[in-house]
Each structure stands twice: as C-alpha cells, then as structure tokens.
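quick one, two chains, predict together pls
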Amino acid sequence: MSSRWVLAGCFLWILSAPSLAAIEAQAFPDETIKARYYDLIATLRCPQCLNTNLAGSDAMIAQNLRATVLRLLIEGKSDAEVEQFMFERYGDFILYEPRWTARTWLLWLGPLGLALIGLSVWWSMGASSRKARQGLTEADRASLKRLMDR
Amino acid sequence: MPDFELPSLMQADQTLTAADVTGEVSLLNVWATWCPSCVAEHGELTRIFETTGLRIIGVNYNDDSAAARTWLKRWGDPYAFHIVDETGTLAIDLGVYGAPETFVVDADGIIRYRHVGVVTQKVFEETLAPLIQDLKDAS
C-alpha cells in the first residue's frame, strides 16, 4: 500500500515539474502571449542541456532563448515562425518533436523497429518452449532406448 | 554572418556591424569572463595572433563589459576588436551553445567553419590553419 503512495507522490512531483522552472520577471503584454510563451518554452529543448526544456533550465543559453521567444511573440511572430527561428539556428535538437526528414526517420521508426525485433524474439522463444512441452518424439524415444540398453 | 548592430567593447561610442567582420579572413571567437576554458584558450589565441598575424575578433558573450575589460588587461588582448553581445542576440543568430566557440569567417564575411570548445594548438594546426590558408589563396 505504501509503495502506491510513493508512486502517487512521484507522479504528482512529475506533474509539478513546470513549477520548478526558473522564476523570471517577464513583462507580458497580454495573456495570450503569456500562454503561448509558456507553451513554446515547454516544447523547445535547451541546446546546452541533455534533456531539459527551455522552461526548466537555468542555463544562460536557455535564459537568452526564453527572452528571444518572448521578443519574437511580441514582434507578432506565429508559434510556427518561432519554432522555425529556433530550428534554423539550433537544428532538430531543439525541437522535442523533431521534424520528419531524411536525417530523423530513424529516430521516428527506430522504436517501432526495436519493438518488432522484441516481438519476434518473444514469438520464437514461445514457439521453442511450446515444442519442448510436446514431450519426446518417436526418434527421441528410440535414441533414449538405445542409450539405456547399452 | 548574420546582421547585427552592437557596441564595441573598447570604444563605447562605436557601433559594429556585420560589415566590420569582412575584408579579410578572420577568427570570430565567442568568449566571456565567466568561462574558465576561455582563459585556457587565451594563450593559444595569443600565440596564433603573434605567429600568424591573423585577425581575431571577439564576441564578448553575456558578460559584464567592465569585467571583460579587466579580464583583457590581466590576460592580454590579441583581438582586433570585441563585439559586445550582452543579451546574446548575436550568439543566438550564430547558433552558439556556450563559450568558447570559434568561427572561421572569410573575407566576404561568410562563415566557413565552426569549432565548439577550446581552440588548442592541435585544433588550429590540423583544422583551422589549412582552411584559413585555402580561403586566403582563393581570395
């Protein structure tokens, strides 16, 4: 029972991760831009960090990029244009959902491929254990008898 | 080079633009006083300037200008000039992750190579110097 509570605690902690984000005083001209700003910095990866979004990083580059996201939004850029701006400068790495390109297809299809390999291994293991459960064949019995009679 | 309009570290009244980075093959070095590897790299940049006379342009990245000037007084200044990029706008346009990073820029102001991390003598001699020679020969 207690482990369930630990699990629930972990889950709540994960949900609260955005609240761990760096606290910054940003001047938002309106609520829409504020909402779009928070959406964007949650979906752009900090280029310097291994796996943190712009929202959750204290790295200098993340601070600069957050300020840039807000500046671009205030200039009237669309969300897609902000993402394109970041992509042009930092490449696929900055997007948590990389685009479908010649260089990223493996990233998208890789997990599916691994799952298929896993499934086929599982299937063949199942097949061999089913065979083992069928017991001895006539040929097995014959060779066993030969050994016993020796 | 991406366009920019930023102050010069040593001449506060001077505005530098992308045009200032053209004219000859140069190294564009992104550095800061908060960056310990920049101190490690500084000796090699000084050696490169003293032995080859190559123009080295500094981008003082996300830094305090007064601290940057003190830093240069302490370690020496082999740079032709420094672009002050206090908020990292130029660095973002360059796709900089952190300091130090060094770009080889040709005489037309086109970036030909990007090196992330410290420029050591090995990096310079094996990678940068041959490229710089090719660019000089071509122009």
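Chain B is about 35% helix and 25% strand.
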